[in-house]
Design brief:
Elements lengths: L1 H19 L13 E4 L3 E5 L4 E11 L3 E11 L12 E6 L2 E2 L4 E2 L4 E6 L9 E4 L2 E9 L4 E8 L9 H8 L6
Antiparallel strand pairs: 1-11, 2-3, 3-10, 4-8, 4-9, 4-11, 5-6, 5-7, 5-10
């Protein structure tokens, strides 16, 4: 796992060097996705049976609205999912968002945070440290979180998985 974080840091450093050599006085408008990889903490509220997946990031360059995707695995459970596949919500910096992640199948999948009309929704991140909780009634085995500002970057592509994990396709 440490080599993956090192690779992400090197890629981020290379992009920052590129932007530092920009002669323009305006900040470049390149949308570079922010990936959160690493060990996460899972806890269960015994009264509500809500499962909390906790993450923290320090890498947001500026305050603002960001789209959010997760790379998550849903495992089959006894009795299946007669009420539909699990849905997850997000709490960022103590603010719970109404938008949700709606999974579509068993196994690994990229899921975009979306509103009730299934349109990609944004969350607010601040410069510096951000606390992130992915919550739901099922365990969300989240391996990767992607934040980005350009709505055309929706989803986590196979190319991005290859860069981060050495992933080569669906299993």
């Amino acid at each position: 796992m440490n080599i993956k974080i090192l690779i992400l840091l090197i890629v981020g450093f290379a992009f920052s060097l590129f932007s530092c050599h920009n002669e323009s006085k305006e900040a470049p408008s390149i949308d570079i996705p922010i990936f959160v990889v690493g060990e996460y903490k899972v806890s269960v509220d015994k009264e509500t049976l809500i499962v909390y997946n906790a993450f923290e990031i320090d890498s947001v360059a500026k305050d603002g609205a960001y789209f959010m995707d997760i790379w998550v695995r849903i495992d089959m459970r006894d009795g299946g999912f007669p009420e539909g596949f699990p849905e997850f919500h997000v709490i960022i910096n103590n603010k719970r968002y109404e938008s949700s992640f709606k999974t579509q199948k068993i196994g690994w999948q990229s899921v975009t945070l979306a509103n009730a009309n299934q349109v990609a929704a944004t969350v607010q991140l601040r410069e510096g440290r951000n606390s992130i909780f992915v919550i739901g009634k099922e365990l969300a085995k989240v391996e990767l979180i992607k934040f980005y500002q350009n709505p055309t970057n929706v989803g986590i592509s196979d190319e991005e998985l290859q860069i981060v994990f050495g992933y080569t396709g669906p299993t």
